[in-house]
Amino acid sequence: MSGLITMDDLTNEEIIAILDDAERLLPVAKGELYLPLLQGRILGNLFFEPSTRTRMSFETAMKRLGGDVVNLGDVKTSSVVKGETLFDTIQMVDGYTDIIAMRHPRQGAAQYAQDSARVPILNGGDGAGHHPTQTMLDLFTIRQAHGRLDGLKVVLAGDLRYGRTVHSLSHALTRFDCELVFASPDLLRMPRDIVSDLEAHGAKITETEDLYSMMKDADVIYMTRIQKERFSDEDEYAKVAGAYKLHANDLNDVKANMIIMHPLPRVDEIHPSVDATRHARYFEQAFNGVVARMALLCKLLGVSVPKNVEKEGSAF
Ligand code: CP
Q: Is the residue at 23 inside a domain?
């Protein structure tokens, strides 16, 4: 069965259907309603790189739907340290589980895993490659705030070179005719092959180093962390560290309904003064990881989300 490796694995119609499923599952994600759609199913969490949100929200999503989870846990206490290959690890976990969520430092690792797995693989981030389940929760958050995805102006800011969340998200937003602004230091520009591909698909893109002048008519500002761990040269990192530091004082002229998003974790690119403004959406966005991943787990396991969740579920 095929999984979700990049956003190309979903049509626009499938994206909308999954977002609709996610919306109906909100009371289940919040723990207000019990609906064990995935009872008897097991998710394997294979995280070869650190994660808080992706790993925990997958686990929460599975458990809220009555399923169970087995974890590789800390790579240092697994047989990976004895030299076990990714191929062999996947052969084992494939037999133990019904679906696998995986994060790996190597770009292309999720596709490699899918090629030899019987069960669907959900790519939870492959190096500087893709992070499609993050994109689904990002799209859910944008639609929740603006009531639509089409035709919005979205500013993606920070580390566009190594940030896999913005790679996946910019592909999806192009398919919904959004106008994109890529704001980054020169060293961290969006990779040329991605820009070319987006433009070939009709993307309207502005590239700039000046984030602040692009905020006024934005519908969404999507900040990202500079991915220190992907730099081979610390001096290069030092040149761009702290490039953008969004403060509440920078938001005086923005649209009233503009939302600020961030995949998190943040370092210093969003000052805590922003948290109390009407624009901050990053903590709700992180919560939306549960509901988006619930809908994705159902989709890939072939389980229909009932149209009337309130009627099918039971109170605690
Ligand atoms: N957004 C995200 O991928 O967060 P984690 O690295 O904590 O999973």
A: yes
